[in-house]
């Protein structure tokens, strides 16, 4: 890693994975996470995380939309009239979301039924719009792609953590496979019903934000 | 940025973007549509099996092709006209072919879905001719007879009506006495996830199993979803016709109550002849 860094450092602008580029991907994973730090995209973090499988599909869907919209907006950034830029972004984002939704309906029908409206609601996910406005409008396609990827992964990390906790505690399973042994149930262990409900996600998310801020020492004023 | 370029540029850009987006989406839709239609068809068949008592695990075990071939062998699809005689689906097919459907497109339809297409077309024709719908609507209805291994085990009635947001579609399966409920399933709806959408959850559907649609005098009373638990809100003598409700889903369940009764009523005259 240090070798790549050293050789990549002198080359400016054209490098693919220089320090700056890696920073773009790494930053939103934890230190500047879109969910826990910027507190965006909470709606879907609560809605789709009752079990891991739909959570994972949601993460893939958001990654496709976010990286796609970042690249497209970035490609058009010098041509988009400033006055209508928000609606232009929305058109791009919603087209991509419809595309993802239709693709899911064609190739993963059961999953698209389970996720129901939440795939369409990616349109209203503040992360997508936020990254388009804050990053893609001012940066070249490649960094924008990395930024989209980084933020999607940051979103996914938190969603999968919440999904893991909820599925494990709420139904004793991980990815639909029973992990809490039957013997434990026979001894009187009961799945935690609260975890299946949205408040369960809130509580887990609160814990994650707590741990995260404690480690990153970032405090709101 | 491009603020200097003026209003004309902005309009042109907006138009161009809309054009690109809409062409792109139309293309994607056209390409994906056949696959989506196959998925919907499979989903409907899976729900028929769910209505006659297959558990989600049992259905998941079957491959798509197996489900479809099992449907062919286990179900007989009947289409009845308003006098409860078997309707002529060949005639429907001929009409649909005349309306621009291709032989290929209709190849995958069974008698019931053919009838659905025909009914939709009949509505269009009626609207075009500016006639009252009743004059055109022949009152066709579909009935699925479940007969695995040749002996009839259940009758499945398609049900549909308004929920809170959109039409809910489903099936209710009745035992041979055409009174006891064997199962119910819902395959198409747009109800609120976590509230109305819980009608598709197993515990809710299981509530219907074993309940009766006929009253003591043999009259149709259907099955009603209670507010909260049946045990708390409904007198003991009526428990046979009530099921537990879903909190926060009053309008969804109200819709189901209405269309379940209405749809069962449509079949009641025919069922009377079968019961004897």
UniProtKB/TrEMBL annotation, chain B:
Similarity section: Belongs to the NqrC family.
Subunit structure, interactors included? Composed of six subunits; NqrA, NqrB, NqrC, NqrD, NqrE and NqrF.
- Where does the source fall among the domains of life? Bacteria
- Name the GO terms of the biological process aspect: sodium ion transport
Q: Where is the FMN-binding domain?
A: 163-267
Extract the SMART domains matched here: FMN_bind
Q: Where in the cell is it found?
A: Cell membrane
* E.C. no: 7.2.1.1
Does the keyword field hold Nucleotide-binding?
no
Tell me what this protein is called: Na(+)-translocating NADH-quinone reductase subunit C
Q: Which InterPro entries match?
A: FMN-bd (IPR007329), NqrC (IPR010204)
Q: What are the required cofactors?
A: FMN
The UniProt function text for this chain reads:
NQR complex catalyzes the reduction of ubiquinone-1 to ubiquinol by two successive reactions, coupled with the transport of Na(+) ions from the cytoplasm to the periplasm. NqrA to NqrE are probably involved in the second step, the conversion of ubisemiquinone to ubiquinol.
Regarding the membrane, this protein is recorded as: Single-pass membrane protein
Indicate where the modification FMN phosphoryl threonine is found in the sequence: 250
Q: Which GO terms describe its molecular function?
A: FMN binding; oxidoreductase activity, acting on NAD(P)H, quinone or similar compound as acceptor
């Amino acid at each position: 890693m240090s070798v790549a860094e050293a050789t990549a450092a002198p080359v400016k602008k054209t490098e693919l994975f220089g320090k700056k580029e890696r920073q773009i991907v790494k930053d939103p994973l934890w230190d500047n996470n879109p969910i826990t730090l910027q507190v965006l995209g909470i709606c879907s973090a609560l809605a789709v995380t009752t079990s891991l499988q739909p959570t994972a599909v949601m993460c893939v869907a958001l990654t496709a939309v976010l990286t796609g919209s970042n690249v497209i907006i970035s490609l058009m950034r010098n041509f988009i009239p400033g006055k209508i830029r928000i609606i232009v972004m929305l058109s791009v984002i919603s087209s991509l979301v419809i595309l993802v939704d239709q693709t899911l309906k064609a190739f993963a029908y059961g999953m698209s039924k389970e996720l129901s409206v939440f795939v369409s609601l990616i349109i209203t996910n503040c992360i997508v719009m936020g990254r388009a406005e804050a990053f893609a409008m001012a940066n070249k396609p490649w960094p924008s792609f990395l930024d989209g990827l980084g933020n999607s992964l940051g979103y996914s990390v938190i969603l999968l953590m919440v999904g893991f906790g909820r599925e494990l505690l709420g139904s004793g399973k991980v990815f639909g496979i029973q992990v809490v042994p039957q013997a434990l149930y026979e001894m009187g262990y009961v799945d935690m019903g609260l975890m299946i409900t949205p408040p369960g996600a809130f509580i887990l998310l609160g814990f994650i934000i707590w741990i995260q801020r404690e480690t990153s020492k970032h405090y709101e004023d | 940025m491009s603020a200097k370029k003026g209003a004309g540029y902005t309009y042109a850009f907006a138009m161009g973007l809309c054009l690109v987006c809409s062409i792109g989406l139309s293309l994607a839709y056209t390409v994906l549509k056949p696959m989506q239609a196959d998925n919907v068809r499979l989903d409907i068949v899976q729900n028929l099996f769910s209505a006659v008592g297959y558990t989600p695990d049992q259905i998941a075990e079957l491959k798509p092709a197996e489900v479809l071939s099992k449907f062919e062998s286990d179900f007989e699809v009947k289409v009845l006209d308003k006098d409860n005689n078997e309707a002529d689906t060949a005639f429907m097919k001929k009409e649909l072919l005349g309306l621009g459907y291709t032989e290929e497109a209709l190849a995958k339809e069974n008698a019931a879905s053919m009838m659905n297409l025909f009914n939709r077309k009949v509505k269009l024709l009626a609207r075009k001719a500016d006639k009252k719908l009743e004059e055109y609507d022949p009152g066709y209805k579909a009935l699925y007879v479940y007969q695995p291994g040749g002996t009839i085990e259940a009758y499945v009635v398609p049900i549909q009506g308004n929920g809170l947001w959109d039409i809910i579609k489903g099936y209710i399966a009745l035992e041979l006495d055409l009174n006891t409920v064997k199962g119910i399933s819902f395959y198409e709806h747009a109800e609120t996830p976590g509230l109305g959408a819980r009608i598709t959850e197993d515990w809710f559907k299981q509530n219907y199993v074993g309940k009766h649609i006929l009253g003591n005098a043999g009259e149709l009373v259907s099955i009603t979803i209670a507010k909260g638990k049946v045990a708390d809100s409904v007198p003991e003598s009526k428990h046979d016709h009530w099921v537990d409700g879903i909190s926060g889903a009053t309008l969804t369940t109200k819709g189901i109550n209405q269309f379940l009764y209405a749809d069962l009523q449509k079949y009641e005259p025919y069922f009377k002849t079968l019961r004897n």
